[in-house]
Write a structure and sequence with these properties.
The protein is α+β, with helices and mostly antiparallel strands and about 220 residues long. The protein is built from six helices and nine strands. It has one domain. Helix content is about 40%, strand content about 20%. A seven-stranded antiparallel beta sheet has the order 1-4-3-7-8-9-2, covered by helices on one side. A two-stranded antiparallel sheet has the order 5-6. It is globular. The C terminus is likely disordered.
């Protein structure tokens, strides 16, 4: 029942916006959250005021151009988008946004494919968890290889979209994740912190293993 409900409430609206969901296909090792990036990490972006003529069309055009130029899509036009867990409807998700992410399960990456006909900034923002309403998008997207993160925010005067290069290498982002992993306060979301802590630990483990290999080889000799 849960899978059918999620198909109806989450995947179907995304499909109408031109994003085909590929369930259970997120690559291993993708960082669970990106934040705290610095200017040195930004490789592109754009802004448009709400009074921009043909706002939705301009946003769609510039988003696609940014996605192509920064490598958000793979050769099948697949990428990751952050979506809420569970079986929220878009309307229910909006009603609960003001309560803060710590009061509900954190969002997770979901793999999607951009279809031939799409409307991310209009229909996606208006009914498919990619914004408040048409022309007021809010989302996070990631390349499958984590080489670029695209974040869109809606402010008082307009829409801002920024592309961050290789966030998993950014010292600013890593410091922010370490801070989040250890951030405790009443009503916080321990699952969110655990996922960040697990990713940080897993990221460090391969380097440690490689460093230990020569010593082990010498001991064996």
């Amino acid at each position: 029942m849960g899978a059918e409900e999620r198909e109806r409430k989450v995947y179907r609206p995304l499909r109408r916006a031109g994003l085909e969901v590929l369930p259970d296909a997120v690559p291993d090792g993708v960082m669970p959250f990106v934040g705290g990036y610095g200017r040195e990490d930004v490789v592109g972006g754009f802004s448009h005021g709400y009074d921009t003529p043909g706002l939705v069309e301009r946003l769609n055009e510039d988003w696609y151009e940014l996605a192509v130029s920064t490598g958000l899509f793979d050769h099948r036009r697949e990428f990751l988008v952050m979506l809420p867990q569970g079986t929220w409807t878009h309307a229910a998700w909006l009603r609960n946004m003001h309560e803060g992410y710590h009061l509900k399960p954190p969002a997770l990456w979901t793999r999607v494919r951009l279809l031939e006909r799409w409307d991310v900034m209009g229909r996606g923002a208006g009914s498919a968890f990619l914004g408040v309403h048409a022309g007021h998008p809010v989302f996070g997207m990631m390349a499958l290889d984590s080489s670029v993160y695209v974040i869109c925010s809606t402010g008082e005067r307009g829409v801002d979209v920024v592309a961050v290069s290789h966030p998993y290498r950014s010292e600013s982002v890593l410091r922010h994740l370490e801070w989040l992993a250890g951030w405790h306060y009443p009503g916080d979301n321990p699952e969110f912190r655990r996922r960040i802590a697990a990713w940080l630990a897993g990221r460090q483990r391969p380097a440690t293993a490689e460093a230990d290999t020569p010593a082990a080889a010498l001991d064996a000799g």
